[in-house]
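Q: What would this chain look like folded?
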Amino acid sequence: MVDNTCLDDWLRWQESLNPRHMDLGLDRCEGVAAAMDLAGLPMPVVTVAGTNGKGSCVAYLTAMLEGAGYAVAAYTSPYLDRYNESLRINRREVRDDELVAAFENVERCRGDVPLTFFEFRTLAALDIISRTGADVAVLEVGLGGRLDAVNIVDADVAVVTSIDLDHMDWLGADRESIGREKAGIFRRSRPAVCGDGSPPGSLVAHAADLGSALRLIGEDYSWRREDDGWSWRGAGIAYTDLPAPCMGGGFQYDNAATAIMAARMLAPGIDIDAAAVRDGVAGARLPGRQQIIPGPVERLVDVAHNVQAADALAATLAARPSTGQTHVVVAMLADKDVSAVAGALAGQVDTWHTATLPGPRGGSGEDVGRTLDRHFPAHPVTVHADVATAWRAALSGAADGDRVVAFGSFLTAREVLRIELG
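A: My prediction, written as structure tokens:
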């Protein structure tokens, strides 16, 4: 156990508890949660899973609920800059001392259970949330769904944003397998929402088996672009003249629409009016989601790290063509399919800059560079030691009218945004 109150020391210590970075299963968390008297949370809960769009959906839903006057506890993962940003209580980031007190509580109840880093932080977050007096808790599910630590909580509304190929070693090799894992957050006879326009049959079937009231985008709710904004329609209600989402990418309309549907499913205990919906859509922001930093050389930073997200990023780049060249910085975790992800973007790239990510899961810039050389020989590749060096080199080689793009991981986006925004 850590013998001081330094948050960083606690985080480093937690990483040493379980030799496996990922060790899926609920038994460890459920046992410690029972010892902590965390059988459930004393407020309505929404859980949000999905391959992409989870964080954005949480941001929209949280902003709508707060706009309607509710105090919201929002738990997200992974964090982009500071650990504290992963838990916000009524618009405020959790303080170091609150986290340390929760960590101490987890440790008192843990015994010899080898919790993973994510399990420890999730139990601490639930401990804090249980005592906040918040009106609603919105919890982002980590990897998968069925066996994710967040799934020890029975959600009043369960949301799956999208399903695509990612983490196949853990979740399965196809969308049907992955969809089944994501649907593991659904609960018997409780509402569920899916924002994937072509949901796997496994997800739909699992909802039917549970008697969940599943709401599907394109069937039970939909959205449409209009001259001055967009509109949303569901059973018996419509919201018109909605503002465009501030976060980049056309897929954000799906995320915002899905958040609206989830908010509707919280009724009658939670009521969100049209003004709160509009304010929530307009006000929701999340750094690193196709974030554009304007200037003579436009910079774009995105956390995209799988093919679905890379396709969306490529669509954005194609829709706003540069007058010059596009220089791309890419750094990815070692378990990612570099050729497939980069291939989604290759048509929009003039030069590549690769970098090595730190940590045991970090991918090598040299390995990424060799893959790009082999699959995309027409585009020059420069290998760098780290993301900061790669970013600065890409900027120094760019002329007015060019743009520089960084993607591949939350770690990649974190390093670039620290340089750009301080």
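The radius of gyration is 21 Å.
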